[in-house]
Design brief:
By secondary structure, the chain is α/β, with parallel strands linked by helices. The protein is built from 13 helices and 18 strands. The strands form four sheets. Strands 2-1-3-8-7-6 form a six-stranded mixed sheet, sandwiched between helices. Helix 9 runs parallel beside helix 13.
Length: 405
């Protein structure tokens, strides 16, 4: 089995000022390609400490990917540390100087002298192209390992891994255990609840399950060999067990809705208890936000007397008013907050209007509360589009009342 190590660099990563999303992304990418990561380590902006870590990893690993520290500033020390670990000097890559100069010229600027530092590579290193930014990558062999050095900017890092590093690894190493990751996005079930459901599953030795809980969703991943004949049956069993709590197969809730909507379908959002969270979230999916014809966010205030029957009237009035302003296929409404953690939701469609009053079973902060309210709101639309019961079952919520007009 290949030993694959990632070294993340930078004080901001070491001390938690930023989340190391590059490491999580790379781990998933490598696993699916048969290069499972065996170790991860973070080193701050310390020249000697980084050089020592690079040398130590090169003695025990087959592949080492070093992320970050290739910029033009004084705290970008990776190239110098790599040279120190290999006991070589630094040399200027004239090819990369020309590349950076051309990039600045393209935007009508003169390249600052500080950027020349980004063209200083360890002697003998092979340049790895970066079409996105000014920090080139490079690769070199040290002891038993092949070392790959990449910029820390996620957009640059991901392009370099996908277009430059993975193709090289596939050529350099004969890997036969690459896997496909099948993803289910669920809402309404807890991790323990899902685990109980899956007790009846018989998992082949070649497959493995992974879970990622990120409120309010739980992502379930099945890692399986490509073209495994057992996988379709296993996926079918998982779908049956999870039922209509699956909000997306291979994509998240909003992208699922975007894929389900007809070409001419349009949306209207009217928010109170969700405080504009739903319309902001909608902007994450361009194909969905393009369908939004109008949205409104009204001040939220706790209503002690509100009931689901009043909400149905409220939804009808809002839908009628908004329809006069901008006709839409679907109107999604969050009503005012209620006492003791309650909230009301409504969905108006060409087939009728659905309203429900729900109650939180536990306390959430304001951000998570608005996220959950928005999730249930969009889940009502997802269920309607899939021909399911619009009113779903959620472990963390109690349904107080519901009405279909």
């Amino acid at each position: 089995m290949l030993s694959v190590v990632m070294i993340s660099t930078g004080e901001e990563v070491l001390y938690g000022d930023i989340t190391d999303t590059n490491a999580a992304w790379l781990s998933a990418q490598l696993f699916e390609q048969g290069f499972a990561m065996t170790r991860r380590v973070t080193v701050g902006d310390n020249y000697e400490a980084l050089a020592k870590e690079i040398e130590m990893c090169s003695l025990s690993a087959d592949i080492v990917i070093v992320n970050g520290g290739l910029g033009p500033t004084s705290d970008d020390l990776t190239a110098a540390s790599a040279a120190m670990a290999a006991n070589v000097g630094l040399e200027q890559s004239n090819a990369w100087v020309d590349e950076m100069t051309a990039k600045y010229k393209q935007v009508g600027r003169v390249m600052p002298a500080a950027n020349l530092k980004q063209a200083m590579l360890p002697e003998g290193a092979e340049l790895i192209d970066n079409p996105v930014g000014t920090a080139c990558g490079f690769m070199m062999q040290l002891n038993r390992a092949w070392l790959f050095f990449t910029p820390g900017v996620p957009s640059e890092f991901k392009v370099m891994v996908n277009d430059q590093i993975l193709p090289r690894l596939k050529t350099m190493f004969n890997v036969t255990n690459s896997k496909v990751c099948h993803r289910f996005y669920t809402y309404g079930l807890s991790e323990s609840g899902i685990s109980d459901l899956f007790q009846s599953l018989t998992l082949p030795e070649t497959c493995s399950l992974g879970y990622r809980s990120s409120l309010p969703f739980i992502e379930i991943k099945l890692f399986a060999p490509q073209d495994d004949c057992q996988v379709p049956i296993l996926l079918g069993n998982m779908i049956e067990l999870l039922g209509d709590n699956i909000v997306g197969e291979g994509c998240d809730l909003l992208n699922t809705i975007a894929n389900l909507l007809t070409d001419d379908a349009t949306l209207v959002l009217s928010e109170q208890s969700s405080g504009g969270f739903a319309v902001n979230w909608l902007q994450d999916v361009s194909s969905l936000s393009a369908r939004l014809v109008v949205s409104e966010v009204m001040a939220d205030s706790i209503d002690e007397q509100a009931c689901v029957e009043e909400l149905s009237t409220l939804i009808a009035l809002r839908a009628q008013r908004l329809h006069l302003h901008a006709p839409a296929t679907y109107t999604l409404t969050t009503g005012p907050s209620l006492t003791e953690g309650g909230f009301m939701l409504g969905l108006s469609t060409p087939d009728g209007c659905w309203c429900q009053q729900l109650m939180f079973k536990r306390q959430y902060n304001n951000y998570n509360r608005r996220w959950i309210i928005s999730t249930v709101l969009f889940d009502m639309l997802r269920r309607h589009l899939q021909g399911k019961d619009v009113f779903g079952c959620y472990e963390s919520l109690d349904r107080v009342a519901s009405e279909h007009l």
